[in-house]
Amino acid sequence: MQTGVRHSRMRTPSQARQWVIRPFDNRCAELARALRVCPLVAQVLINRSVSDPQAASSFLRPKLTDLIAPDRMPGVGDAVRRLKNAVLQREKITIYGDYDVDGITGVAILWRLLRLLGAEVDYYIPHRVDEGYGLNDEAVRSLAESGARLILTVDCGVTALESAALARRLGMDLIITDHHGLAETLPQANAIVHPALEAGYPNPDAAGAVVAFKLAWALANEFAAGPRLDPDLRQFMLNATSLAAMGTVADVVDLRGENRVLTSYGLKSLPQCSLPGIAALIESAGLTGKGLDSFDIGFRLAPMLNAAGRMGHARLAVDLLTSDSPVHCRRIAEYLKEQNAARQQCEKKIFQQAAKMVVERGLNHPDHKGIVLAGENWHSGVIGVVAGRIAEKFYRPTVMICLTDAATAAVGSARSIPGFNLYEAVKACSAHLVRFGGHEMAAGVTIRPADIEAFAGAFDAWARDHLAAEDTVSKLHIDAALPLSEFRHDVVRELQMLGPFGQGNPEPCFATRGVRLAGQPRRCGAQGDHLQLAVTDNTSTIRCIGFRLGNLEKKLLESDFFSVAYQPQINTYNGNSNVQLVLADVQFE
Ligand SMILES: [Mn+2]
Fold first, then answer.
1. Beta strand pairing status for 18-21 and 562-573?
2. Which has the closest alpha carbon to 583: 549, 551, 540?
3. What is the 78 CA–ligand 1 centroid distance (Å)?
4. Per the confidence metrics, is the pTM higher than 0.85?
5. What is the pLDDT averaged over residues 192-196?
6. Does the structural domain 66-338 have CATH classification 3.40.50.300?
7. Closest by alpha carbon to 272, among 260, 287, 284?
8. Rounded Cα–Cα distance for residues 329 and 317 (Å)
9. Is 18-58+476-588 CATH 1.20.120.50?
10. Mean pLDDT, residues 197-220 taken together
11. Of the residues 9, 163, 357, 402, which has the maximum number of CB atoms within 10 A of its CB?
């Protein structure tokens, strides 16, 4: 049984979860007939708000021709004209990108294309800890001094009014490509490429790497001699699709519509990607020769690329994706693997400290709704991830602050739970903050250590006013409750057509009530963390795997009946393939 592959994405079970079961939709038989699929697939499509037969058909069978033409991306025309000029005049272009996977892949796409077109191009990635997110004045000044004539941003810049004005004063031109929230005033720039700049653009959820991809595509078209791209450009576009798919999955944007088309093609071509950096990354992750899914990107490849920026400098990850030397790439990929292991260790240590603090201080008591923690020497590159895990474990919005010896102001990262607008919460408590920014689900704060206690009180009070008791109960969304006999081999195989899974299109989850054990459960995994069992409801008997559910063994043996929520999958072992249920939760009645 494959136990190592998938459990990395399973959440750590903590408190009881409330099952929210979608009602049966009577449109599903008709939709199933129109699509020639089983009703269960139709039910899941309707649950994902894909109920129109035409839309559902392209959802199940994405086509590259469904991609939106690159010249429709708002601002692309101005950007292409300015870049074409820069290429022809051999002006020095500096790509200025964000340090996360979305930024890194977007930078690599534009850098590779501009090189292919013969441009003089360089890139700059700010340091995550020392410089922070986005375009900053100091970097703009140093770029001007080093002779940059044109700055091209990726995945940042659309709110950098002051730095944009500074670039202009220093005699540089600026093209912004970004997908972050627009403020009331736009920065001064030669072009702004942004999917939400014009109402009605069909994919306002495009990731930063996709915005970069569209610009690169439009520019490639501009330089193509005839109606067809020459072989080099065609190969480039194929690789760029894989890079854009990685940025899209890593940035957790909605995986329906165009993002789904791009991700499904990008994933298919990823194992054969001709970029030595991608091949090296896949090899270091131990995924060579396997078909890759969105979870492999989200939980294996993306964390390695992100580790560079979290533990050191993200420039190294861009180096990996822009180098053509397999030897050099293999060295970087191995180093990133080590950095990722160090990141995991660091994260684990902080997570344990933070979880202990929550319990010791009683912050998980029903009277508390907002968690604020501060710790000595917590690494600011990983606290965002840890805040996310604490928020998930205790199901409360969480702010984590790094205290350092020297700092007069400390930095913190915050993560939310669904239904709680974190940005509004932080804004409401901003009297205690030096700086803050972010959106509904994630935010960053800067705070003087002396103000932490007052901030914690205000944040908790605001959370108590804006969260009901049931909001702090984690919910498990279930697509349908069905007897086990529904999950035949052919049905489960058809359900796989619904992938790639991710934001907006979660992997289908089903439930069966009143099942009992069919035989003795068996603990497995190095520490007996996992559980193998078979369950029956008299219609059928199916094998299950419960990752991190090993401690349920005793309770299962004591219970006559229980309910299971699960993701069905096809498990192939020794040439046999069988339906297996990956347990998401177990409820005892
Ligand atoms: Mn992004």
1. unpaired
2. 549
3. 22
4. yes
5. 97
6. no
7. 287
8. 10
9. no
10. 96
11. 163
The rounded Å distance from CA 535 to ligand 1 centre is: 43
Question: For position 25, what pLDDT does the model report?
Answer: 93
Q: Tens digits of per-residue pLDDT, 10-62?
A: 444 456 789 999 999 999 999 999 999 999 999 999 999 999 999 999 999 99
Radius of gyration, alpha carbons of the chain = 25
Q: How far is the CA of 585 from the centre of ligand 1 (A)?
A: 32
**Strand pairing of 576-588 and 541-546?**
parallel
Give the model's pLDDT for residue 14: 52
C-alpha 210 to ligand 1 mean position (Å): 9
Distance 196 CA to ligand 1 centre (A): 14
Axis crossing angle, helix 302-311 with helix 231-250, rounded to the nearest 10:
70
Burial letters for 141-152: b for 16+ Cβ neighbours within 10 Å, e otherwise? eebbeeebbbbb
Rounded Cα gap, residues 342 and 346, in angstroms: 6
Ligand 1 centre distance from Cα of residue 377 (Å): 28
Could you confirm whether domain 361-472 is CATH 3.10.310.30? Answer: yes
Cα of 252 from ligand 1 centre, angstroms: 9
C-alpha 208 – ligand 1 centre gap (Å): 5
Task: Convert the pLDDT of each residue in 124-156 to its tens digit.
Answer: 999 988 888 899 999 999 999 999 999 999 999
Distance separating alpha carbons of residues 589 and 580, to the nearest angstrom: 23
Residue 124 C-alpha to ligand 1 middle, in angstroms? Answer: 16
| Residue 268, pLDDT score | 94
pLDDT of residue 166: 98
Q: Copy the structure tokens of residue 59.
A: 């959802």
Measure 219 CA to ligand 1 centroid, in angstroms: 21
CA of residue 522 to ligand 1 center, whole Å:
43
CA 344 to ligand 1 center in whole angstroms: 22
Give me 485's structure tokens.
């006999």
How far, in Å, CA of 178 to CA of 193, rounded?
7
Q: How far is the CA of 250 from the centre of ligand 1 (A)?
A: 9
- Segment 170-175 shows an average pLDDT of 98
Q: Confidence band (pLDDT; 50, 70, 90) for 7?
A: very low
Cα of 246 from ligand 1 centre, angstroms: 11
Average pLDDT over residues 481-501: 96
**Distance (Å) from CA 386 to ligand 1 centroid:** 20
- Distance in Å, CA 447 to ligand 1 centroid: 25
Cα 207 to ligand 1 centre (Å): 5
Q: Where are the domains of the chain?
A: 18-58+476-588, 66-338, 361-472
Taken as a whole, the chain contains a residue count of: 589
Cβ atoms 126, 133 nearer than 8 A: yes
pLDDT at 216 over 70: yes
Distance from Cα 49 to the centre of ligand 1, integer Å: 25
Helices 76-89 & 208-223 angle (0-180, nearest 10): 60
> How many angstroms separate the alpha carbon of residue 273 from the centre of ligand 1?
22
